[in-house]
Amino acid sequence: MRLSFILSALSDKNRQKIIQSLKESELTVGDIAKNLDITAATLSHHLDVLRKNGLISSRRKGRNIFYSLNLSVADELLIEITKLLKK
């Protein structure tokens, strides 16, 4: 796990909002965009950063791309942070 890259990815407020919105269920880009006041290009960039760091995953169904939170990476992140705090 690349802890520093993941923490960097999570440092952005818009990416934090994306993660928050995906906690409940998977969403399309359009659904995610409703919660943010950013351009489509900026949203695409944020989703790409989160996906490259393994925090979210995507799947295509027809014309839509659905995004979901990758809970296994989130669990690993919590374990790594806990280890750091115990040192």
State the secondary-structure class: alpha+beta
Give the percentage of residues in beta strands. 15-25%
- Give me the CATH fold name: Arc Repressor Mutant, subunit A
What string gives the helices and strands in order? Answer: HHEHHEEH
The number of helical runs is 5
Mean pLDDT: 89
Distance between the termini: 18 Å
| CATH architecture annotation | Orthogonal Bundle
Description of the molecule:
The protein has 87 residues and is an alpha+beta fold. It has one domain (3-86): Winged helix-like DNA-binding domain superfamily/Winged helix DNA-binding domain (Arc Repressor Mutant, subunit A), CATH 1.10.10.10. 61% of the residues lie in helices and 16% in strands. It is built from 5 helices and 3 strands; from the N terminus they run ααβααββα. The protein has a 3-stranded antiparallel β-sheet with strand order 1-3-2. A hairpin with a 2-residue loop joins strand 2 and strand 3 (64-69). The radius of gyration is 13 Å and the shape is globular. The model has no long low-confidence stretch (mean pLDDT 89).
